[in-house]
Amino acid sequence: MVILGIDPGYERCGFAVLEKKGQTLSLLDYGIIRTDKKDDFHARQAEIGRDFAVLLEKYQPDTLSIEDLFFVQNITTGLKVSQVRGVLTYLATEAGCNVVEPKPVEIKAHFCGNGKADKKAMQQMAQMTFGLEKSPKIDDAADAIAAAHYAAYVTI
Q: What pTM does this model have?
């Protein structure tokens, strides 16, 4: 079973690909999809969609675990992230993926044992869990790893 984890955003969108065979979980790939701040939002949204489609084609995941939207302060940013989530969930559904949408607090509690874990704790846990030489440099990638891990053990 292949799980694609996503920490959605439109400047940086974290992704991680895990493979689960029995009780063994392997990290196949992780990183971020970046967009250019100079581009308008729709161009950025299209870029994320194209790059995401490449991940779907390359790894053919069974499940997409995409962090549910949580925002308090900036409603404009939240709405744009919501639009990006719509593109990604649509593409994943069309590719035959089961889509799960855990809340950030659920992911953090599962991955770190603390629903209020900070970015550094998430990065360190990703490094320890998968024996990475260094923790993921960008917190969005660590969050995507955690989202995929959540789906591998909680929802599947």
A: 0.94
